Amino acid sequence: MNDLQEKRxxxxxxxxxxxxxxxxxxxxxxxxxxxxxxxxxxGVCALLIEEKLGLAQPTTAQxxxxxxxxxxxxxxxxKKWTFYKRDETALASFTKQLAAQI
Length: 102
What we know:
By secondary structure, this protein is α+β, with helices and mostly antiparallel strands. Helix content is 59%, strand content 14%. Helix 1 packs antiparallel against helix 5 and helix 4 packs across helix 5.
């Protein structure tokens, strides 16, 4: 197992981060409409993710950073906000590699 795979496993070892990944799979189902950016095309604003998680901003930001560093989320800046969407290619590649190893 390489460093990236270990980083990805650690990213998934937290229920809040898993929940974010699940919500972002169907963003229009799980998040209210946002002023800037399209939920599907641009991603979900960090503020909406924070609201839904019910955690403080710094804690939410740390969870999102771990998911970005693992390659599972792609951030996009629009105005002063950061929007997040899943990297489906990275997620599929990781699950395929993991299934082959265990």
